[in-house]
Design brief:
This protein has 397 residues and is α+β, with helices and mostly antiparallel strands. 48% of the residues lie in helices and 15% in strands. Helix 1 packs parallel to helix 4 and helix 8 runs parallel beside helix 10.
């Protein structure tokens, strides 16, 4: 079991940090520090910088832009990106649809889509969940009827993140009503400019526009956009979700949030000093540090299992604990920011020693981050579903 990084891996981490230091545009870095997210143009610009370096899709086959890095190097890279912080390569492109097309798509689809996916010339979103099919995804009802060399698609998807930014959507659709529900599903790519597609915004608890409803009314899609074989989409979806959950613990993100929580606590003055001097705050901080280390070790164990080609329920454990730690770290950061998380203009004051304006500049955006972190235990397979998987696989219930 791997518990530490060797000299080569530590040198690789330094290489990634050096690249981030000189290559991440300062305006993007400042946005990430203040609000923990970047705008569409920033994500596109940064991913193209990564792609020019050859680092946008490190886990892909080398012929399509992969780096040939070891799983541990890929883990280090993902951790450094999130804790710098820099925008992550668009996961819908790089972690989800890209590997599906690379593994199951036709040669024509690989040539058509993979270079554009890596360079973010095409922005994909994910069309899986429906109003009656979220955690029970196999119950989806969006219907694709084949007519000649086209499918006619009717139905609705929900909680579709970044659909308002996207050019294309990868869909799970039902193509057979007679087969078992998992066996009658297909995986298809849809251009969102196609007539009959209607995207409607959903504002989330942080007050932002991340997610959407997407409606399909007699949408004509070429059969050539079917990935793999008809009615085998459930197999491809499991492959995709396996890739997503492997990185969903996001250790680097939680490390960055803890670092930010400490910095804010040092600046947040109280009657007896700073919030960092408060024993309860520090006790919770240390608890999270210890849990984060245990998650990191679990991730190393999972990487070793993947290298050996063995399926491992640790991916579900990693998803559960990773999501919970992200939420608790965001909550601690929110507590450290206090009322200063509210964006405002303040008059200059003589006390405290650190001006309220400066603290507000540090703290702004922490409340929305905390609110949106509540979704971490839902997306990618809810924590309740992950516990069901563990009960089935480990306890054989």
């Amino acid at each position: 079991m791997k518990l530490d990084f060797d000299d080569r891996e530590k040198a690789f981490r330094r290489e990634v940090r050096d690249f981030l230091k000189v290559s991440l545009p300062n305006d993007i870095y400042r946005k990430m520090m203040r609000a923990a997210h970047a705008e569409k143009a920033d994500i596109v610009r940064w991913q193209r910088i990564l792609n020019k370096k050859g680092w946008a899709v490190p886990h892909w086959p080398q012929q399509w832009g992969g780096t040939g890095w070891t799983p541990v190097q890929r883990y280090i890279f993902a951790e450094e990106i999130t804790q710098w912080p820099a925008p992550e390569p668009l996961s819908f492109n790089t972690t989800m649809v890209g590997p599906v097309i690379s593994t199951f798509g036709s040669e024509e689809q690989r040539k058509r889509f993979l270079p554009s996916i890596a360079n973010l010339d095409i922005w994909f979103c994910q069309g899986f969940s429906e109003p009656g099919a979220g955690s029970d995804l196999a119950s989806l009802s969006t219907w694709a009827e084949r007519r000649g060399d086209h499918y006619i698609i009717n139905g609705q998807k929900i909680w579709t993140s970044t659909a308002h930014h996207a050019d294309w959507i990868f869909l799970l659709v039902r193509t057979s009503r007679s087969a078992k529900k998992q066996q009658g599903i297909s995986f298809i790519l849809v251009d969102l400019r196609t007539p009959g597609v209607d995207i409607r915004p959903i504002l989330t608890i942080d007050g932002q526009h991340h997610t959407n409803e997407v409606f399909f009314t007699d949408v004509r899609v070429p059969v050539a956009n079917l990935v793999g074989e008809e009615n085998r989409g459930w197999e491809y979806a499991k492959f995709l979700l396996g890739n997503e959950r492997a990185g969903i613990a996001r250790v680097g993100l939680s490390k960055a949030r803890l670092r930010e929580a400490k910095a804010l606590a040092v600046r947040q003055l109280t009657r007896s000093g700073s919030l960092w001097d408060d024993p309860e705050f520090r006790r919770e901080f240390v608890r999270l540090e210890v849990e984060l280390k245990s998650i990191e070790i679990t991730a190393m164990r999972l990487l070793t299992a993947n290298v050996e080609g063995k399926p491992d329920p640790m991916s579900s454990i990693l998803k559960i604990k990773g999501a919970e730690t992200q939420q608790r770290a965001a909550e601690l950061m929110f507590k450290a920011a206090g009322p200063h998380t509210i964006p405002a203009k303040w008059e200059k004051c003589s006390e405290p020693i650190v001006s309220v304006e400066t603290l507000n500049d540090w703290a702004e955006g922490k409340a929305p981050t905390y609110f949106f972190s509540r979704a971490a235990s839902i997306y990618g397979g809810s924590n309740e579903i992950q516990r069901n998987i563990l009960a089935k696989v480990v306890l054989e219930l």
